Amino acid sequence: MASKTTKRANPGYRCSECGWTTAKWVGRCGECQAWGTVTETGADASSGRTPASTVATPAVPIGEVDASQARFHTTGVSELDRVLGGGLVPGAVVLMAGEPGIGKSTLLLDVAAKVARHRRPEGSTRSVLYVTGEESAAQVRLRADRIGAVADTLFLAAETDLGRALGQIEKADPDLLIVDSVQTLQSQSVDGTAGGVTQVREVAASLINEAKSRNMTTVLVGHVTKDGSIAGPRLLEHLVDVVCQFEGERHSRLRLVRAVKNRYGPTDEVGCFDLGDGGIVSLEDPSGLFLSGTANPVEGTCVTVTLEGRRPLVAEVQSLLTPSGQGSPRRTVSGLDTARINMILAVLQRRAGFPLNQDDCYVATVGGVRLTEPASDLAAALAIASAKLNAVVPKGLIAFGELGLAGEVRPVPGIGRRIREAARLGFRRAVVPKSPEPLGELPEGVRVAEVRTLTEALETMKAWVA
Fold this sequence. Notes:
Belongs to the RecA family. RadA subfamily. With about 475 residues, the chain is an alpha/beta fold. It has ten helices and 21 strands. The chain has three domains: about 10-45; about 70-285, Rossmann fold (3-Layer(aba) Sandwich); about 290-435 and about 440-465, Ribosomal Protein S5, domain 2. The chain has a nine-stranded mixed beta sheet with strand order 6-5-7-8-4-9-10-11-12, sandwiched between helices. It has a four-stranded mixed beta sheet with strand order 13-14-16-15. Strand 5 (about 130), helix 3 and strand 6 form a beta-alpha-beta unit. The radius of gyration is 28 Å and the shape is elongated. Residues about 1-10 and about 45 have low confidence and may be disordered.
């Protein structure tokens, strides 16, 4: 009698970085391309099935779900509310990532104090728990005194052990939890050092479970790697509800917060902040930081309007040309894309007849702002042409539009919105690309020149100079 053969369970392999699975071991993940992150997870999923368990909360019709539990609560910081879509949602988990020293802790400590002071309609206050693993409680208190972030219902705990941090949550039962940072907490139930892939996954999963079960808003501070990506497993970004990126130059006071993922609101909004000695404050109108403010205009400057999300920002582009004393001229760029500036120089030389191959070219923005939108191409071209012609761009003129290799000026989104923002700041002349759609109602007294090519833009600038 033939004996029955038992099918052996094949081992499965999983990437600890992104969760990608495979039947065979490989040294490099096929999804995130990380080395050494694929480990054996035991039997393959096909060898058995997960049995059904008892349902604690049965499914209900979607029309009977109470949506009031997911309403926004203001953070007290208008620019952060703009990025989040209206404020913080109970039970939501927000990941705030950014480089060291950029102002994450300062902003969140200010938010914690303002939430703790905010009263509910019935008159009670909200409790906030701030768990710090990077500083002592005394160090955080010193910062709170400096920025005025002391509140009666703001509780502070310095913990690096996940179990003790969960105990603090159990005792305080806060409405808002801030963890600074998720890479500093360590769980004793799993192996690995704090900040490692395994530890970050366990810590994040435990905190997210607490947030959802308690309907507690949670903000996690995350570190970034040297290339700007969030440290830890990629799975962390999938687990949280909102991912915010904190950006800014170390030598500039301007800070930008972008939502790269938001389950409750838009991802094209940008919040602007001013980081100073007294803390970090919202900037409702940051355009003034990006203008030189010189009394008399000089050659080589042109103002443009860029869109950061849905917000128009007025910025100034400056250019300086000097005769090159070397065989190959120098190209130095700050605040713009070097590749696009090199392309603009080539278009100016080939399509507009500007001899620039013997000049050193320096192009920069004012105030440390970084212009990544192609709409700043036309302003950069006019600034370089102004420096070469030694002619001043007329005061009160703005220019924006994408420049093509054939010398054409391509349309950009939000032309009317950009013109209205510039007019609000006192600009009365605009060189813009020809748009197939109507610009809408424009402010009174604003002269708009719609151009199709770079040559037309240069001729318009020369005519207005005369």
